[in-house]
Amino acid sequence: MLTTNVKSAADSFELINGVKIPCLGFGTWQIEGSAADLAVAEAVRAGYIHIDTAAAYGNEEFVGSGLKRSGIPREELFLTTKLWNNIRTYDEAIAACEQSLSLLGTDYIDLLLIHWPNPLKFRACWKERNTELWRAMEQLYRDGKVRAIGVSNFCERHLDALFETAEISPSVNQIRVCPGDIDEETISYCKSKGILIEGYSVLGTGRALDSALIVETAKKYGVGVAQLCIRWCLQNGFVPLARSVSPEHIMQNLDIFGFEIEPADMVALSEMVGECGVHENPDERPF
Ligand SMILES: NC(=O)c1ccc[n+]([C@@H]2O[C@H](COP(=O)([O-])OP(=O)(O)OC[C@H]3O[C@@H](n4cnc5c(N)ncnc54)[C@H](OP(=O)(O)O)[C@@H]3O)[C@@H](O)[C@H]2O)c1
Fold first, then answer.
1. The model's pTM
2. 84 C-alpha vs ligand 1 centroid, how far in Å?
Protein backbone atom coordinates (compact mmCIF):
# COMPACT_ATOMS: atom_id res chain seq x y z
CA MET A 1 0.00 0.00 0.00
CA LEU A 2 1.74 3.18 -1.15
CA THR A 3 1.34 6.14 1.15
CA THR A 4 2.12 8.42 -1.78
CA ASN A 5 -1.44 7.69 -2.91
CA VAL A 6 -2.85 9.46 0.13
CA LYS A 7 -2.40 13.21 0.32
CA SER A 8 -5.00 14.22 2.91
CA ALA A 9 -7.22 12.78 5.63
CA ALA A 10 -10.02 12.65 3.04
CA ASP A 11 -8.10 10.13 0.91
CA SER A 12 -8.91 6.48 1.42
CA PHE A 13 -7.69 2.92 1.45
CA GLU A 14 -9.95 0.23 0.06
CA LEU A 15 -11.19 -2.57 2.28
CA ILE A 16 -11.45 -6.16 1.07
CA ASN A 17 -15.21 -5.68 0.44
CA GLY A 18 -14.60 -2.57 -1.69
CA VAL A 19 -15.66 -0.03 0.95
CA LYS A 20 -13.37 3.01 1.13
CA ILE A 21 -11.91 3.85 4.55
CA PRO A 22 -10.39 7.31 5.12
CA CYS A 23 -6.66 6.90 5.74
CA LEU A 24 -6.53 8.70 9.11
CA GLY A 25 -8.95 8.30 12.01
CA PHE A 26 -9.81 10.37 15.08
CA GLY A 27 -9.83 8.33 18.31
CA THR A 28 -12.23 9.02 21.18
CA TRP A 29 -11.16 6.63 23.96
CA GLN A 30 -11.08 8.34 27.38
CA ILE A 31 -12.93 11.41 26.09
CA GLU A 32 -16.03 11.56 28.21
CA GLY A 33 -19.38 13.34 28.14
CA SER A 34 -19.64 16.72 26.46
CA ALA A 35 -15.85 16.76 25.95
CA ALA A 36 -16.42 14.04 23.33
CA ASP A 37 -19.04 16.17 21.59
CA LEU A 38 -16.66 19.15 21.55
CA ALA A 39 -13.62 17.16 20.40
CA VAL A 40 -15.48 15.32 17.64
CA ALA A 41 -17.12 18.48 16.29
CA GLU A 42 -13.72 20.21 16.37
CA ALA A 43 -11.99 17.27 14.66
CA VAL A 44 -14.57 17.00 11.88
CA ARG A 45 -14.52 20.74 11.24
CA ALA A 46 -10.72 20.57 11.10
CA GLY A 47 -10.84 17.88 8.40
CA TYR A 48 -11.15 14.42 10.00
CA ILE A 49 -13.91 12.41 8.34
CA HIS A 50 -13.15 9.12 10.11
CA ILE A 51 -14.13 8.77 13.77
CA ASP A 52 -13.44 5.78 16.02
CA THR A 53 -15.53 5.03 19.09
CA ALA A 54 -16.75 1.96 20.99
CA ALA A 55 -19.64 0.99 23.24
CA ALA A 56 -17.06 0.50 26.00
CA TYR A 57 -15.96 4.16 25.77
CA GLY A 58 -19.40 5.21 27.04
CA ASN A 59 -19.40 8.24 24.74
CA GLU A 60 -21.37 7.17 21.65
CA GLU A 61 -24.19 9.62 22.41
CA PHE A 62 -21.71 12.52 22.60
CA VAL A 63 -19.78 11.37 19.54
CA GLY A 64 -23.11 11.33 17.68
CA SER A 65 -24.06 14.84 18.83
CA GLY A 66 -20.58 16.14 17.94
CA LEU A 67 -20.91 14.70 14.45
CA LYS A 68 -24.32 16.33 14.01
CA ARG A 69 -23.06 19.68 15.28
CA SER A 70 -20.13 19.59 12.85
CA GLY A 71 -22.64 20.14 10.05
CA ILE A 72 -20.90 17.62 7.78
CA PRO A 73 -23.41 15.28 6.07
CA ARG A 74 -23.47 11.74 7.48
CA GLU A 75 -22.61 10.16 4.12
CA GLU A 76 -19.30 12.09 4.03
CA LEU A 77 -18.25 10.59 7.37
CA PHE A 78 -16.82 7.18 8.28
CA LEU A 79 -17.90 5.97 11.71
CA THR A 80 -16.53 2.96 13.59
CA THR A 81 -17.86 1.43 16.77
CA LYS A 82 -17.20 -1.84 18.60
CA LEU A 83 -19.02 -4.59 20.47
CA TRP A 84 -17.71 -4.88 24.01
CA ASN A 85 -16.90 -8.01 26.03
CA ASN A 86 -20.35 -8.42 27.61
CA ILE A 87 -21.83 -9.04 24.14
CA ARG A 88 -21.23 -12.64 23.08
CA THR A 89 -24.48 -14.08 21.67
CA TYR A 90 -26.27 -13.54 18.37
CA ASP A 91 -29.21 -11.69 19.93
CA GLU A 92 -26.99 -9.56 22.16
CA ALA A 93 -24.96 -8.47 19.13
CA ILE A 94 -28.05 -7.45 17.15
CA ALA A 95 -29.38 -5.53 20.17
CA ALA A 96 -25.99 -3.91 20.88
CA CYS A 97 -25.75 -2.69 17.30
CA GLU A 98 -29.26 -1.19 17.56
CA GLN A 99 -28.22 0.50 20.80
CA SER A 100 -25.09 1.98 19.19
CA LEU A 101 -27.11 3.18 16.19
CA SER A 102 -29.57 4.86 18.49
CA LEU A 103 -26.90 6.50 20.69
CA LEU A 104 -24.88 7.65 17.68
CA GLY A 105 -28.05 8.99 16.02
CA THR A 106 -27.46 7.26 12.72
CA ASP A 107 -29.10 4.47 10.74
CA TYR A 108 -25.86 2.75 9.71
CA ILE A 109 -22.34 2.18 11.01
CA ASP A 110 -19.45 2.16 8.56
CA LEU A 111 -17.33 -0.33 10.46
CA LEU A 112 -18.37 -2.57 13.35
CA LEU A 113 -15.62 -4.41 15.23
CA ILE A 114 -15.40 -7.13 17.86
CA HIS A 115 -13.43 -5.12 20.42
CA TRP A 116 -11.67 -8.01 22.13
CA PRO A 117 -11.14 -11.66 21.09
CA ASN A 118 -11.10 -13.34 24.45
CA PRO A 119 -12.97 -11.70 27.35
CA LEU A 120 -12.16 -13.04 30.81
CA LYS A 121 -15.74 -14.24 31.36
CA PHE A 122 -15.69 -16.37 28.19
CA ARG A 123 -12.11 -17.59 28.33
CA ALA A 124 -13.16 -21.25 28.26
CA CYS A 125 -15.38 -20.80 25.17
CA TRP A 126 -14.04 -17.74 23.29
CA LYS A 127 -13.94 -19.57 19.99
CA GLU A 128 -17.62 -20.60 20.03
CA ARG A 129 -18.69 -17.16 21.31
CA ASN A 130 -16.79 -15.35 18.53
CA THR A 131 -18.30 -17.70 15.94
CA GLU A 132 -21.81 -16.75 17.09
CA LEU A 133 -20.96 -13.06 17.35
CA TRP A 134 -19.55 -13.07 13.83
CA ARG A 135 -22.69 -14.73 12.45
CA ALA A 136 -24.71 -11.83 13.88
CA MET A 137 -22.30 -9.29 12.44
CA GLU A 138 -22.58 -10.94 9.02
CA GLN A 139 -26.37 -10.58 9.30
CA LEU A 140 -26.03 -6.89 10.26
CA TYR A 141 -23.79 -6.46 7.20
CA ARG A 142 -26.29 -8.20 4.92
CA ASP A 143 -29.10 -6.08 6.39
CA GLY A 144 -27.20 -2.89 5.57
CA LYS A 145 -26.87 -1.80 9.20
CA VAL A 146 -23.08 -1.88 8.88
CA ARG A 147 -20.97 -1.33 5.77
CA ALA A 148 -18.00 -3.40 6.91
CA ILE A 149 -17.18 -5.76 9.77
CA GLY A 150 -13.89 -6.48 11.46
CA VAL A 151 -12.06 -7.25 14.65
CA SER A 152 -9.73 -5.64 17.14
CA ASN A 153 -6.86 -7.04 19.21
CA PHE A 154 -7.08 -10.37 17.34
CA CYS A 155 -3.96 -12.52 16.86
CA GLU A 156 -3.48 -15.18 14.21
CA ARG A 157 -5.03 -17.90 16.41
CA HIS A 158 -8.22 -15.87 16.93
CA LEU A 159 -8.54 -15.08 13.24
CA ASP A 160 -7.84 -18.67 12.21
CA ALA A 161 -10.67 -19.81 14.50
CA LEU A 162 -13.01 -17.19 13.03
CA PHE A 163 -12.16 -18.23 9.47
CA GLU A 164 -13.33 -21.81 10.20
CA THR A 165 -16.96 -20.67 9.88
CA ALA A 166 -16.89 -17.07 8.59
CA GLU A 167 -18.75 -16.47 5.33
CA ILE A 168 -17.52 -12.87 5.20
CA SER A 169 -13.89 -12.05 5.87
CA PRO A 170 -13.03 -9.43 8.48
CA SER A 171 -12.05 -6.22 6.67
CA VAL A 172 -9.97 -4.74 9.48
CA ASN A 173 -7.93 -5.70 12.53
CA GLN A 174 -7.48 -2.72 14.86
CA ILE A 175 -4.39 -3.33 17.00
CA ARG A 176 -1.86 -1.41 19.07
CA VAL A 177 0.88 -0.02 16.81
CA CYS A 178 3.45 2.56 17.84
CA PRO A 179 7.21 3.05 17.48
CA GLY A 180 8.85 0.05 19.15
CA ASP A 181 5.61 -1.94 19.21
CA ILE A 182 4.81 -3.51 15.89
CA ASP A 183 3.37 -7.03 16.04
CA GLU A 184 4.93 -8.46 12.87
CA GLU A 185 3.32 -11.89 13.23
CA THR A 186 -0.24 -10.53 13.38
CA ILE A 187 0.46 -7.90 10.74
CA SER A 188 1.92 -10.31 8.18
CA TYR A 189 -0.94 -12.76 8.77
CA CYS A 190 -3.49 -9.98 8.22
CA LYS A 191 -1.71 -8.83 5.07
CA SER A 192 -1.85 -12.39 3.70
CA LYS A 193 -5.64 -12.38 4.20
CA GLY A 194 -6.24 -8.87 2.83
CA ILE A 195 -7.19 -7.54 6.28
CA LEU A 196 -6.30 -3.86 6.74
CA ILE A 197 -4.47 -2.90 9.94
CA GLU A 198 -5.70 0.09 11.89
CA GLY A 199 -3.08 1.29 14.37
CA TYR A 200 -4.27 2.49 17.76
CA SER A 201 -2.24 4.26 20.45
CA VAL A 202 0.25 5.37 17.78
CA LEU A 203 1.48 7.95 20.31
CA GLY A 204 1.79 5.19 22.91
CA THR A 205 -1.18 6.88 24.64
CA GLY A 206 1.13 9.92 24.99
CA ARG A 207 4.35 8.11 26.02
CA ALA A 208 6.01 8.79 22.63
CA LEU A 209 6.22 12.47 23.60
CA ASP A 210 9.00 11.66 26.09
CA SER A 211 11.12 9.42 23.88
CA ALA A 212 14.54 10.92 23.04
CA LEU A 213 14.82 9.01 19.75
CA ILE A 214 11.37 10.09 18.60
CA VAL A 215 11.94 13.71 19.68
CA GLU A 216 15.29 13.81 17.78
CA THR A 217 13.81 12.21 14.67
CA ALA A 218 10.86 14.59 14.71
CA LYS A 219 13.29 17.55 14.87
CA LYS A 220 15.12 16.22 11.82
CA TYR A 221 11.89 16.46 9.78
CA GLY A 222 10.84 19.75 11.39
CA VAL A 223 7.60 18.22 12.74
CA GLY A 224 6.14 17.40 16.15
CA VAL A 225 6.46 14.00 17.83
CA ALA A 226 2.79 13.20 17.27
CA GLN A 227 3.04 14.04 13.58
CA LEU A 228 6.08 11.78 13.24
CA CYS A 229 4.35 8.81 14.93
CA ILE A 230 1.15 9.19 12.91
CA ARG A 231 3.15 9.51 9.68
CA TRP A 232 5.26 6.46 10.62
CA CYS A 233 2.08 4.42 11.10
CA LEU A 234 0.63 5.58 7.78
CA GLN A 235 3.89 4.90 5.91
CA ASN A 236 3.75 1.33 7.22
CA GLY A 237 0.49 0.99 5.28
CA PHE A 238 -1.78 1.15 8.35
CA VAL A 239 -4.63 3.51 9.17
CA PRO A 240 -3.49 5.54 12.21
CA LEU A 241 -6.00 6.52 14.89
CA ALA A 242 -4.97 9.53 16.95
CA ARG A 243 -6.80 11.11 19.86
CA SER A 244 -6.69 14.66 21.18
CA VAL A 245 -8.97 17.10 22.96
CA SER A 246 -6.75 20.06 22.10
CA PRO A 247 -7.80 22.07 19.02
CA GLU A 248 -4.13 22.83 18.35
CA HIS A 249 -3.13 19.15 18.49
CA ILE A 250 -6.14 18.12 16.41
CA MET A 251 -4.94 20.44 13.62
CA GLN A 252 -1.32 19.38 14.00
CA ASN A 253 -2.18 15.67 13.77
CA LEU A 254 -3.86 16.22 10.40
CA ASP A 255 -0.75 17.88 9.00
CA ILE A 256 1.19 14.69 8.21
CA PHE A 257 1.04 14.58 4.42
CA GLY A 258 3.82 17.05 3.62
CA PHE A 259 6.86 14.98 4.59
CA GLU A 260 8.20 11.46 4.02
CA ILE A 261 10.17 9.52 6.66
CA GLU A 262 13.32 7.98 5.17
CA PRO A 263 13.56 4.14 5.15
CA ALA A 264 16.39 4.05 7.74
CA ASP A 265 14.34 6.17 10.17
CA MET A 266 11.26 4.01 9.55
CA VAL A 267 13.30 0.96 10.62
CA ALA A 268 14.87 2.73 13.63
CA LEU A 269 11.42 3.78 14.88
CA SER A 270 10.04 0.27 14.39
CA GLU A 271 12.97 -1.36 16.15
CA MET A 272 13.35 1.00 19.11
CA VAL A 273 12.71 -0.78 22.38
CA GLY A 274 9.66 -0.41 24.57
CA GLU A 275 9.68 3.33 25.49
CA CYS A 276 6.11 3.70 24.22
CA GLY A 277 4.96 0.48 25.90
CA VAL A 278 4.15 -2.82 24.22
CA HIS A 279 0.94 -4.66 23.42
CA GLU A 280 -0.09 -7.39 25.83
CA ASN A 281 -1.39 -10.88 25.16
CA PRO A 282 -5.18 -10.49 24.77
CA ASP A 283 -5.65 -14.01 26.16
CA GLU A 284 -4.21 -12.93 29.52
CA ARG A 285 -5.75 -9.53 30.22
CA PRO A 286 -7.90 -9.32 33.37
CA PHE A 287 -11.12 -8.20 31.59
N1 LIG B 1 -9.36 -1.22 19.91
C2 LIG B 1 -8.78 -0.97 21.07
O3 LIG B 1 -8.65 -1.85 21.95
C4 LIG B 1 -8.21 0.40 21.31
C5 LIG B 1 -7.38 0.63 22.41
C6 LIG B 1 -6.85 1.90 22.59
C7 LIG B 1 -7.16 2.90 21.69
N8 LIG B 1 -8.02 2.68 20.64
C9 LIG B 1 -8.40 3.76 19.69
O10 LIG B 1 -7.23 4.46 19.25
C11 LIG B 1 -7.34 5.84 19.61
C12 LIG B 1 -5.96 6.47 19.88
O13 LIG B 1 -5.24 5.80 20.91
P14 LIG B 1 -5.09 6.38 22.40
O15 LIG B 1 -6.37 6.98 22.82
O16 LIG B 1 -4.49 5.28 23.21
O17 LIG B 1 -4.06 7.56 22.39
P18 LIG B 1 -2.93 8.20 21.47
O19 LIG B 1 -3.59 8.78 20.27
O20 LIG B 1 -1.80 7.24 21.33
O21 LIG B 1 -2.44 9.38 22.45
C22 LIG B 1 -3.33 10.33 22.97
C23 LIG B 1 -2.54 11.26 23.89
O24 LIG B 1 -1.58 11.99 23.12
C25 LIG B 1 -1.76 13.39 23.30
N26 LIG B 1 -1.58 14.08 22.00
C27 LIG B 1 -2.28 13.89 20.88
N28 LIG B 1 -1.82 14.68 19.89
C29 LIG B 1 -0.80 15.39 20.41
C30 LIG B 1 0.06 16.38 19.89
N31 LIG B 1 -0.03 16.78 18.61
N32 LIG B 1 0.99 16.91 20.71
C33 LIG B 1 1.09 16.50 21.99
N34 LIG B 1 0.30 15.56 22.54
C35 LIG B 1 -0.64 15.00 21.76
C36 LIG B 1 -3.19 13.55 23.78
O37 LIG B 1 -3.29 14.70 24.61
P38 LIG B 1 -4.21 15.97 24.18
O39 LIG B 1 -5.62 15.47 24.24
O40 LIG B 1 -3.88 16.98 25.22
O41 LIG B 1 -3.80 16.37 22.82
C42 LIG B 1 -3.41 12.27 24.57
O43 LIG B 1 -2.96 12.42 25.89
C44 LIG B 1 -8.28 5.78 20.82
O45 LIG B 1 -8.78 7.04 21.18
C46 LIG B 1 -9.30 4.79 20.35
O47 LIG B 1 -10.21 5.37 19.45
C48 LIG B 1 -8.51 1.43 20.44
1. 0.98
2. 19
Q: Tell me the percentage of the chain whose pLDDT exceeds 90.
A: 97
Cα gap 223→234, rounded to integer Å: 15
Please give the distance, rounded to the nearest whole angstrom, from the Cα atom of residue 165 to the centre of ligand 1. 34
Q: Which of these is catalytic: 48, 57, 141, 189?
A: 57
Q: What's the pLDDT at 3? A: 54
Is ligand 1 within 6 A of the CB of residue 70?
Answer: no
Tens of pLDDT, residues 88-97: 999 999 999 9
Q: What is the pLDDT of residue 2?
A: 45
**Can 57 be counted among the known catalytic residues?**
yes
Question: What domains can you pick out in the chain, each with its CATH number?
Answer: 10-206+237-259 (3.20.20.100)
Out of 6-15, 248-257, 274-283, pick the least confident.
274-283
Atom of ligand 1 nearest to the CA of 242: 19
Answer yes or no: is the C-beta of 117 below 6 A from any ligand 1 atom.
no
Nearest C-alpha to atom 5 of ligand 1 is from which residue? 200
Atom of ligand 1 nearest to the CA of 29: 45
Q: Which of 63, 115, 211, 241 to mutate to test the pocket of ligand 1 (most atoms within 8 A of CB)?
A: 241
12-51 residue pLDDT tens: 999 999 999 999 999 999 999 999 999 999 999 999 999 9
